[in-house]
Amino acid sequence: MVIGLSLLGGEKIGLGLVGGFSLANLPQGLSSASGMKDAGRSGGYIFGVWGGIALVSGIAAGLGNLAFGGLAPEVVAGILAFAAGGVLAMLAETMVPEAFQDSQSFTGLITVIGFLTAFLLFKTSS
Length: 126
Prior knowledge:
Blueprint (H helix, E strand, L loop, with lengths): L1 H5 L8 H24 L4 H25 L5 H30 L4 H19 L1
Helix pairs in contact: 2-5
């Protein structure tokens, strides 16, 4: 939905947005894939789940663009802020505790490097 909203007004998706989503989703995907593998799921099942998520995400981006194209900029900003809050809540609730459990000494540094990289991608592309 956020990607679809970013296309309003005929704008292109910036490298920062794509890079940010990619950087944010890669560790989440690896974490959940290893969890599914540890639970005894097959490689085909894991790829099927992630393929389905990619398909649904593409559909959601298109629907976000179509359904919210006529909204006021303030409403779009509110939706984007809500989505960002959801990402931060998920990060604090699931990713940070798991990261501290597995690699306590580097978790903070890796998190800061990730946010800095996303910020720099966004700033250099805009």
